[in-house]
Each structure stands twice: as C-alpha cells, then as structure tokens.
Design brief:
The complex is a heterodimer of chains A (308) and B (177). Chain A folds into two domains: 142 residues, Rossmann fold (3-Layer(aba) Sandwich); 151 residues, 3-Layer(aba) Sandwich (Rossmann fold), CATH 3.40.50. Chain A is built from eleven helices and nine strands. In chain B, the strands form two sheets. In chain B, strands 3-2-4-5-6 form a five-stranded parallel sheet. A three-stranded antiparallel sheet of chain B has the order 1-8-7. In chain B, helix 3 links the parallel strand 4 and strand 5. The chains are: A alpha/beta (308), B alpha/beta (177).
Chain lengths: 308, 177
C-alpha cells in the first residue's frame, strides 16, 4: 500500500487509509527509536531541505531528527539568517535550493497556502510544517497517533480543542484528522477566538470549559497565538485564565480520567498550569516523542514514491 | 496455474525435527544462542522450531524474537510495488551472542544481507548462522549460503515457492506455484 498523495499539504487532502498507513509505519519507527542504533539506511540517497520562515523549536528539531534517523542528508534554512531578508521571493529561494538537487522540502511559512503554492510551482515533494493559520498536518497526525496509543480505536471518542481556535492551524488539522478517524470534536474558547462558521465543519462549540471537560475523553489545550493577533480578542490574559485556563482542581472535579494534550510551546499558568502540564493526565512529552516517529513515517512513505 | 508439491506435511514434520536436532547438536542448551525469525514468513518457521526445542528437547529457556528487514532492503525506491513492514520484537541482547536467522525460503540472499545489516542496530553478535527450510539452488545474487537447510530445490525464476503452515493455512506443506 502507498499514500494517495504525493505531498503532505493538509489533512484535508489525505484519506483515512493514508492516515492508518502512516500510523502503522509510525509504530514500526517508534520501535526503531528504541534500538541501541536508532537509524535505518532507507533514505541515504535522499536530500531534504527544511525551510522555516517562522520560528520553531519542536517541529524543526523533530523533522531534522526524523530525517537523520532515516539516514537522509539534511540542510536546514531559517529565514532570519538568509537572503529573504534582502528581499528574495519564496519561489526564488526554493528554486535556488532545488538547483542543488534536493529531493524533498519541509516548509513552514506564515502565509496560508504557501506549501500548496510551492508544490504547484516546483518539481519537489513538499511537506507542510505549518502555513499561517491554515494547516499543520504532521502535528494533527502525531496528536491522533498519541491519542490512539492511549485510547485505542478513536471511533466515537470525544475530543475537545480548547483555546485560540481562530488562529490555530493545529486546531484545523486536528479537526480534519479526528473526523476522518471517526472521533467527535468540540471546540471551546472565547467567542472572539472561535471561527464564525466552525459548525459547518461538523464541530460543536461548547463555551463552558468545565462542561467541555466533563464531556470529553481528551482535551487538547492550545496557546493563545499573540503573534497572529492584530487586535485584542479578550480583555486581559487574567480574564482568559479565569475562563479557559486549565488547573488541577478542575480535573479532580471530573468523575473520570481524561487525557491532556498540548502542541507546545506552553504558556505555563495561562492555558494550563504547571501542575497539569507535568501531571499524570498529561501526555505532552509523549506527543513530542511520537512526533519523531510519525514524521519518519510521513517522510519514508513520501520518499518511497520517488522511484529512481 | 499448476502447482507441484515439493514437501508433504509428513516430510515437513520430519525435516523440522531433523533441523531441531541439528540445532541442539551445535548449540546444546541455547544459553548463549538466540533465535531470530525473519519477518514475515521466517517467524512462523521459527515459532515451530522453538516449540519442538521446548517440548521435545526440554530447552525451556530458549530466547527468540522477530526481525523485520523492510527498512534495510536494497530495493527501496527501485520498485513500483510499495513495501509493507512487519513488527520487530527483540527483547534480549544480541551483543556477543550467537544468533541464528531463520527464514522459510532462501532465494537471492538479499533478505539475509538486509538482516545482517539490521541486526547490527541491536548489537554485535559473536556469530550469525542461517537456517532455511527451502534453499533455491543456483539463484543467489550474493555470496550467502545456509548453515542448516531443510531441502535444496531447483526452481526456475518465474516460479515461486510457497510454504504453508497448519496454524495459518490449515495444513503444512511446501508447493511450487
């Protein structure tokens, strides 16, 4: 079996079978990451460029590590230290890199549609590492993989995504991915941070955090994306914390254990307290560990379509 | 498509018992030897041999595992046909141990070559041996030969050797298809 897509631009484009295929391979790669020598030689003749026009810790390191574990040659490029500062366009930047015979590009950009644009105008395989507030497909895949690891088949499972949904590419990709796996999704957050027509995606809005937690099996907490806000979406951070911040007392009031997730970076004390982030319900660090395995699976499966 | 029986279930049984005896002769109580079945079909043979060693030779503490070689194959990106990986499960150390690879059919030798590369991710074995049920003569692409063989056969290129097990296929047998 192989993927139905030649690029990974968004979860919107992949099928449920693609997601299961990625998860199967991610399990195998997770076992590889527990060996004394955590490398496989499969991609030793493949060169991959990581082009990050926005800041990143987790995603960039996770992709680099995944690529190196597959024995690929990796070059990383961050916009801050490049000729983009001198006004070079996206297409020119990438074509220059591709002229050096790079097989695959992993790109993060602040404009929605940048990855699709790249896939359309260049001959390389493109993996979207986040395009503006549009999609972040590998994050959604590792989130769903982490949930499945703990809860089994996600059909019928209830997931609430809490926080700044409006500016979140993680939220959108998660919604698409979880729905393709049969899960039920709700969103919870200040009205000003919930997109107007979110119901058209088959997602209900639950404005009350305690009710949302009582309903769900998993709560995926999002950071307030200050860097994408041009105006104030809520009166103050303190008010946000009072209504939508998660603390340990809330979890104790529930009559069941739920999983707590967060894509990172965490604003400790804002959307989530340290006690919860480091507590027994949290699988935040497992998400990071699974991220390398899931990215290895995506890169491996896309590379296997590049027949010599 | 015509199919010819290479080994009946009785012949398979006799051969497995003979192979088990050969293993015991060399490895005695298996205290320094580990058995590794190569996924996907070598593990079924390994399972059978381990059962014979445990039940009929009383080697109860034998350690065995499964190794998948998909990510070490030399034909990645050279085939239109996509590759499917299986589980690797090796819950013991191979460092300085004798390792026996077990596979059902030895053909070109490329799987074994991949297995030799793959096992190094787990440590440096003292010695590696190969046991196969069927050795396809004159088909090797690499200088690899088995240490223990069930039956050597002459098979032309476009024919396939299929090994059936009673646990999975209803009856033991080896067929040419």
């Amino acid at each position: 079996m192989s993927l139905t897509v030649n690029h990974l631009i968004g979860i919107k484009d992949v099928t449920t079978e693609d997601i299961h295929l990625i998860f199967e391979h991610a399990k195998h790669f997770k076992e590889v990451l527990n060996r004394p020598i955590k490398k496989v030689p499969s991609l030793r003749d493949v060169a991959i460029a990581n082009i990050f026009f926005e800041n990143s810790t987790r995603t960039k390191l996770s992709f680099e590590l995944a690529q190196k574990r597959l024995s690929a040659d990796v070059i990383s490029f961050s916009a801050a230290q490049s000729s983009v500062k001198k006004g070079e366009t996206l297409i020119d930047t990438v074509n220059n890199i591709l002229a050096m015979k790079v097989d695959m590009v992993v790109m993060r950009h602040s404009s929605p549609g940048a990855a699709a644009f790249l896939a359309k105008h260049t001959k390389t395989t493109v993996i979207n590492a986040g395009d503006g507030a549009h999609e972040h497909p590998t994050q959604a895949l590792l989130d769903a993989f982490s949930m499945q690891e703990k809860l089994g088949d996600l059909t019928g499972k209830k997931v609430v995504i809490v926080g700044d949904i409006l500016h979140s590419r993680v939220a959108l990709s998660n919604i698409f991915c979880l729905q393709k796996l049969g899960a039920k999704v709700k969103v919870c957050g200040p009205n000003s941070l919930i997109p107007k027509h979110i119901q058209s995606l088959g997602v209900e809005v639950e404005p009350n955090l305690m009710k949302a937690l009582a309903w769900c099996d998993v709560a995926n907490m999002l950071r307030v994306q200050n860097e994408r806000m041009d105006v104030s979406y809520f009166p103050s951070t303190r008010e946000y914390i009072m209504q939508y911040g998660l603390d340990a007392q809330m979890l104790e009031q529930l009559d069941k254990d739920i999983l707590i997730m967060h894509p990172g970076p965490i604003n400790r004390g804002v959307e989530i307290t340290s006690e919860v982030a480091d507590g027994k319900h949290s699988i935040i660090l497992e998400q990071v560990e699974n991220g390398v395995a899931v990215r290895m699976a995506v890169i491996y499966l896309l590379a296997s379509k590049l027949i010599k | 498509m015509s199919s010819k029986t290479l080994l009946t279930s009785l012949e398979v049984d006799i051969i497995l018992h003979r192979l088990a005896c050969q293993l015991v002769e060399k490895h005695l109580d298996f205290s320094e030897t580990k058995i590794i079945g190569l996924q996907p079909r070598g593990t079924k043979l390994a399972e059978r041999l381990v059962k014979i060693l445990q039940e009929e030779h009383q080697i109860t503490s034998i350690q065995w595992g499964a190794l998948d070689i998909t990510f070490f194959r030399d034909d990645f990106r050279r085939n239109e046909k996509p590759l499917e990986a299986n589980r690797t499960q090796i819950n013991f150390l191979v460092e300085n141990q004798r390792v026996i690879f077990i596979d059902d059919v030895l053909y070109t030798g490329r799987s074994i070559n991949a297995a030799l590369a793959a096992i190094q991710s787990f440590g440096r074995p003292k010695e590696v041996e190969l046991l196969v049920l069927i050795d396809r003569r004159f088909s090797r692409h690499l200088p690899i030969q088995p240490d223990y063989r069930g039956r050597q056969v002459d098979v032309i290129n476009n024919e396939k050797v299929k090994v059936c097990w009673k646990e999975y296929d209803g009856e033991d047998g080896v067929y040419l298809i």
